[in-house]
Amino acid sequence: MIALGLFLAFTLVPILETWLIIEVGRVIGSWETVAWLVAMGFAGAWLGKRAGVGVLRELQEDLRGGRSPADRLWEGALVLVGSVLLVTPGFLSDLLGVLLFVGPFRRWLVPRLKRWVLARVTVAGVHIGPAGPGPGAPSPRPRSRFQHPTA
Domain residues for 54? Predict the structure, then answer.
């Protein structure tokens, strides 16, 4: 499944983008197409900075209000991805990049993306809590410096 995704991302998508750039160039002209792609690159950089600052401001408001910042962090990541997509030459990437800058679309996408990612990611061996044993807990036995860490 991963191989198929990588194949699509690094082979078919660039081929489709290139074909689309050629076709748009035939319709509106080559210089206009290049100008559009350069303008979208600049727009991506500018929008990324502007929207990124906005997401950071919302993140600070969430923290001040005692709300979880998790969704804002996801939105910030989507803004970053949107910026990269706009800077990347291509019309499909531009379309997806612009969509990621639309706040309602991002807020609609975040829970679905979280669900998708969490269904595929397994976190094991993570301890969340105090760094050492609690009060009254027995001390861990000292380990020999030659002993394997799992023993």
Answer: 40-119
